[in-house]
Design a protein that fits this description.
The protein is mainly β. The chain is built from 4 helices and 26 strands. The protein has a 4-stranded antiparallel beta sheet with strand order 1-26-25-24, with no helix packed on it. A hairpin with a 4-residue loop joins strand 14 and strand 15. The longest helix has 20 residues.
Length: 384
């Protein structure tokens, strides 16, 4: 009996020593986040996104971002490296390209090439025939660690995010747990083939959107629950400021829609336990020493905000039941919002209130029945 107690005591001491002192990859910084805003007022809970329709759910998993071409064809980059192309009804799928990596942000340039932020392969350009060209893999001799999202100005400049130069896509949770400014906003000039640093020291640089007036670019800081604005023109040219802060969730993708609206996808509501730990670096080290399943994960909650050019909330779409969740991107096209996700099968389509989609050749506008199937289970290897 005494021998058993000794063994148990030694085991407990070894476990405590492991939890307290075992080396970990993160170097966490202390931060006290502002109090989470309540789900009331401009953030009032609702079920508008319950009308989201699932499309292509048997074709591919986790199309993190969605792009629509001039013909209405829909593109999504899946977790297995394939970029799928559906017709305007979300049917007749084909493989447009396979990057061999993890395609995240997608956006067509003005020559019809699909520009891709691939978390492993860097910034890519894919011709309409599917030929892949690597545009950039580093900036200032520092390789991209997590190429995430992009947008393109009318003069062809590609603004894109490197979510974390330190942690790759499979370690996005570690980057958020470390809570240091490892992200950056970059610019690729297709005329010179050069990549330039625009904004450094961002807390998980995520979604990117250029304003319709071409006077500023937005970049989401997922780790700080905010969206930043970098001015391209005017008196503030070359400066960065807060566009909106203290969001009630983790901002992932951002895109420019019509009527001056920017669509911000909140991948998940904020996690109270994570917020409480952000002031205590030691506790986050202990958590990282546990199996990865203990790290915070996105909740099954659908959440998209529409902001005007002043950063004010003008649309608030939610679905607490998370029928399509988490939503990581929202792209407006022809009266719809198209949703991507890091966990779900297929993509989502939501008809904007008050919008009447215009007919596209071969497209039926009646709404197909919503599937009751859920998406795949959480996979720590997916990035926000």
């Amino acid at each position: 009996m005494k021998y058993t107690i000794r063994i148990l005591g030694v085991a407990i001491l070894l476990l405590l020593a492991y939890l307290c002192f075992w080396p970990v990859p993160i170097d966490p910084a202390a931060w006290r986040p502002p109090q989470t805003p309540p789900f009331e007022g401009v953030y009032a809970a609702n079920t508008l996104l319950a009308d989201t329709v699932r499309l292509g759910e048997s074709d591919g998993v986790a199309p993190e971002d969605i792009a629509v071409d001039k013909e209405g064809s829909i593109y999504g980059g899946c977790e297995d490296g394939r970029i799928l192309c559906w017709d305007s009804e979300g049917k007749n799928v084909k493989v447009f390209a396979d990057t061999g990596g993890r395609p995240l942000g997608l956006h067509f340039d003005y020559s019809g090439n699909l520009i891709v932020a691939d978390s492993y392969k860097g910034l890519l350009s894919i011709s309409n025939s599917g030929t892949i060209t690597v545009l950039a893999t580093e900036c200032d001799s520092r390789p991209f660690g997590f190429t995430d999202d992009l947008d393109i100005t009318k003069d062809g400049m590609i603004y894109f995010s490197d979510a974390s130069w330190k942690y790759g896509q499979t370690m996005y949770q570690e980057d958020l747990m470390e809570h240091r400014p490892n992200g950056r906003l970059l610019r690729y000039d297709p005329r010179t083939g050069q990549t330039h640093l625009v904004v450094d020291n961002l807390y998980f640089a995520n979604g990117v959107a250029v304003s319709p007036k071409q006077d500023f670019v937005l970049v989401n800081e997922t780790g700080k629950y905010r969206v930043m604005r970098y001015w391209l023109k005017g008196e503030k040219k070359g400066t960065v400021e807060k566009f909106i802060s203290n969001l009630p969730g983790f901002p992932d993708g951002v895109s420019a829609g019509t009527e001056g609206v920017f669509w911000v996808a909140l991948a998940s509501p904020r996690d109270a336990s994570l917020d409480s730990m952000l002031a205590w670096p030691f506790l986050r080290k202990v958590l990282v020493r546990l199996p990865k399943s203990f790290l915070p994960k996105p909740q099954e909650y659908s959440f998209v905000l529409g902001l005007n050019e002043k950063g004010e909330i003008v649309h608030n779409f939610q679905d607490p039941a998370g029928r399509y969740a988490p939503i990581t991107s929202a792209e407006e096209n022809n009266g719809y919002l198209y949703f991507g996700s890091i966990l779900e099968k297929g993509f989502g389509r939501f008809q904007l209130p008050g919008k009447t989609p215009e007919p596209i050749a071969g497209m039926r506008l009646e709404t197909p029945p919503r599937s009751s199937a859920r998406g795949v289970q959480a996979n720590p290897g997916n990035g926000l």
